[in-house]
Task: structure prediction
Amino acid sequence: MNNWNHNHILDLSTFSLDDYKTVLELTTRFKDVHKSSSRKLPALQGKLITNLFFEPSTRTRSSFELAAKRLSADVQNFSVSSSSLSKGETPLDTILTYISMGADILVIRHESTNVPADLANYVDTNNINISILNAGDGYHSHPSQGLLDLFTLASFFNPKEVSTNSLLKKKITIVGDILHSRVARSNLWALTACGADVTLCGPPSLLPDEFNDFVLNPPPGQKIDPVNKRGIVCIERSLKDALRNADAVMTLRIQKERMQQNMLTDLDTYHEQYGITHQSLKWCKKKAPVLHPGPVNREIEISSKLVEANSIKSKLIIFPSPILSQAKRPSLGSRLIT
Ligand code: ASP
Result:
């Protein structure tokens, strides 16, 4: 990997176009390993990877575990429910315990913004030779999801040559609870770096006007933007306008657990205005793919019928994990808890 200078991966705002190119090239090569008979590479043999998930996760945690195993690393998984946190151990002491066991890479998810960055700072200051990978911190950043979505889109637009070029001038529409979404933020950095134009759509309470300026200034904490020219970001309040001529659509869950107060009173109206359905997909370009980072809340951000129709006529629905059957709509109290 030429010119790769990220010891930690905390936030895609620090990635240059060359970094994205490197990731897409490498991922394309690794993807073929799935098809090989051994399904494994010795790339991380002898390394210890520790997954520290202080927040729930289905897809991300299992994906990190599977990726580590496929690359022949040893893996440790930590989850809050089976840890000593309930006995009064502080998260830092928990982390130090895993560091002392010789972890080479710590994959960390935490509900508080900047915990992975603080940890990276801590290991660097103390000369501890460990890489920190952010698997989602508060609503700040989810770099692995952003890279996965970039790869998914680049492969969709040009399966023969997966490259950042295929994103150039594409219109990607992201719909839903942008305010609380680390997925949206990471996608904004990645997609605009590759020249895609991103349209954001949602009600003002979940999509403040400030998002228009998201990529206009240097990323937080940096003097200059590592990307010379980014695609543009704009806000459309009407779903029809947002989806018109879209090359791809991403829909997001309403992340109630990250809200300070209840910001939506009527979920049925929300579904009518912002839900992705067979009907609303007609406004996009033909064959526009729909991406959802999971977990899915059916009949809120996306219709159940669309979820069920994993692959329908001219539309391709891409999900990161198999869809679990959840035929019944959950009761109002639990429907947003995932
Ligand atoms: N799984 C994603 C995340 O961890 C999206 C979500 O939770 O809605 O941020």
Notes: The CA atoms of residues 111 and 138 lie 4 Å apart. Residues 136, 142, 182-183, 253, 255, 293-294 surround aspartic acid (CB under 6 Å).
